[in-house]
Amino acid sequence: MMGRSLLAILKPALISGLLAGALAGGFHLFLTEPLIDRAIAIDESTQMVMHAPPGEPVMGRPAQRVGLVLGFLLYGLGCALLLGGLVYLTRSYFPAWSDAKRSFLLASTLGWSVAIFPFLKYPANPPGVGNPDTISHRQELFLTSMGLAVLGAILVLLLNTYLRRAGRLAWPIGLGIYGAFLAAVFVALPTVSEQSHIPAELIREFRALSLTGHLVFWGTIGGIFPWLLSGNRNR
After folding, report:
1. Cβ count within 10 A of residue 145
2. Rounded-to-integer distance, Cα 214 and Cα 223, Å
3. pTM score of the predicted model
4. What is the dihedral of CA 109, 111, 117, 119, to 10 degrees?
5. pLDDT of 37-74, one tens digit each?
6. Residue 102, Ramachandran bin (φ over 0: left; ψ between -120 and 50: alpha; else beta)
7. pLDDT (tens digit, 9 = 90+) per residue, 82-122?
8. What is the 3-state secondary structure (H, E, C) of the chain?
């Protein structure tokens, strides 16, 4: 029996992506944005004490909040298109798996590689944390950690296919290699030292909410997308 068409996979993927973007955007709008306002107020008051003129924002806070929600919606659509395409293209690598099961595996792998692992090495910071001169360097390191995590996941999937055909224990060996690879990447990548006058408690709370936002986003996609595929049996 032929599997689903690409369009039949992309439709539920886009629905799950929009829901994930809306939930994550709403989460950050109501929970994380107040912390950003607090950090900005602390940063501005500190600059006034130091007789340093506060920097003018490129975009006002109301516009930033609208951009936050719209950005997450677009991010959800982009991730959904990528995930749907991967589900369609990887059928030959997991011939015994249903589209729903494969979508959950790929969503979990993608979320870990592009969001969770890079965040663990280089967590997000509120305004007023770190040297502005090192922002580009930090972004480069973040993208490097993301790229290496994605590369490692791709290599493990390819290795899994080879080991499965050889009749060996594919997943235990593949996951062990992937874990060792990520541990080496985590240790090898440099740590960015960032001084700040923002209270440590506020930074910890901001990072906890940022991580939770990642989990909300990818948890929604990883839960809704397979569920929609399971409920839609049309070929």
Report:
1. 23
2. 14
3. 0.87
4. 180
5. 998 888 778 766 555 555 555 567 788 889 999 999 99
6. alpha
7. 999 999 988 877 777 788 888 998 999 999 999 999 999 99
8. CCCCCHHHHHHHHHHHHHHHHHHHHHHHHHHHHHHHHHHHHHHHHHHHHCCCCCCCCCCCHHHHHHHHHHHHHHHHHHHHHHHHHHHHHCHHHCCCCCHHHHHHHHHHHHHHHHHHHHHHHCCCCCCCECCHHHHHHHHHHHHHHHHHHHHHHHHHHHHHHHHHHCCCCHHHHHHHHHHHHHHHHHHHCCCCCCCECCCHHHHHHHHHHHHHHHHHHHHHHHHHHHHHHHHCCCC
- Residue 107, both tokens: 């969503």
Say if residues 235 and 136 touch (Cβ distance below 8 Å): no
- Computed over its alpha carbons, how large is the radius of gyration of the chain? 21
Length of the chain, please?
A: 235
